[in-house]
Design a protein that fits this description.
2 domains, Alpha-Beta Plaits, 10 helices, Rossmann fold
């Protein structure tokens, strides 16, 4: 079983649409993992049944027992996150500001504060329209620890792929270079970088590739909307050559991307067209490299 992670240095490059198209082509050979948990949207294209929901707990939240609390204010004095405001003459915990550091219960003279594990989201193991399995999650509003949730989603996808004898785990990672991306890259066999020929696209491609290099993972690149700016596209191609990044394919700007999204479909579902042919070739090239 091989793990393929699709990432982009910035949002809006078409990363999720491309990952969904690759997933459709991979069919039942893959287990799909949507690790963009902060802004999950793969379900819009793959139509999961949201089966087998599991609550995900991570981090702690302080709780004040108002019957014991004497309103001394010691907790609020030491809270560096301003998470203990006074509401209706009572000290209360602001769940969005509380970092779960556990300092306030240590200074409370009445032992009125306790720490409780937080439910920060839900993870689902679903069947999607191709008949394959998709592992995805929904992070709670304002919830933290998305990196840990990404790790949970990935590990569950790998466990299922091994138990069902699937060839690949295909991961839709988050854009950028933050903690969720680091978690997405951990343990990967191959990384697909999706970029666009814009100044910000090239800048952020270089930035995310520096992260990929830290993990020593082989990488390939798909240039989406490649005909938008020929000068920047050529700069991207030079960068790929310099860094020994496989040039997987270049996709032209095409309204079928939008058409597919509006219909809730992947690009190959629209039938034979130039984009579909290029994405099919890209999937063949990716699997050949991985194998």
């Amino acid at each position: 079983m091989k793990e393929i992670v699709v990432v982009s240095g910035k949002g809006g490059t078409g990363k999720t649409s491309i990952t969904a198209a690759l997933s459709y082509l991979g069919n039942k050979d893959i287990v799909l993992a949507d690790c963009d948990v902060d802004a999950a949207d793969m379900h819009l294209l793959m139509q999961p049944d949201f089966g087998r929901p599991t609550d995900f707990y991570s981090g702690e939240l302080a709780e004040i027992d108002q019957e014991i609390c004497t309103q001394c204010g010691a907790c609020a004095d030491v809270c560096r996150f301003d998470a203990i405001p006074i509401i209706d003459t009572q000290y209360t915990i602001d769940p969005l500001n509380c970092e779960g550091c556990g300092y306030c219960p240590r200074v409370c003279p009445e032992n009125a504060i306790s720490m409780h594990e937080q439910n920060v989201g839900q993870c689902y193991v679903s069947k999607i329209k191709t008949g394959a399995t998709m592992v995805h999650a929904r992070l709670g509003i304002g919830a933290d620890n998305s990196g840990k949730l990404v790790a949970y989603v990935k590990n569950e996808a790998k466990r299922i792929a091994e138990s069902e004898n699937r060839k690949y785990v295909l991961v839709d990672g988050s854009p950028g270079i933050g903690c969720p991306v680091v978690s997405s890259l951990s343990g990967a066999n191959f990384v697909v970088l999706v970029t666009e020929p814009t100044v910000s696209g090239l800048h952020d491609l270089k930035r995310v590739f520096q992260l990929v290099k830290k993990f020593k993972i082989p990488a390939g690149c798909i240039i989406n909307k490649a005909d938008l700016n020929e000068t920047v596209r050529m700069e991207i191609e030079r960068f790929l050559q310099e860094e020994n990044i496989a040039a997987i394919t270049s996709l032209p700007y095409d309204g079928k991307f939008t058409e597919a999204i509006v219909q809730g479909k992947t690009i190959p579902e629209l039938g034979e067209n130039n984009l579909t042919e290029k994405i099919e070739t890209a999937w063949q090239k990716i699997t050949a490299i991985v194998e």
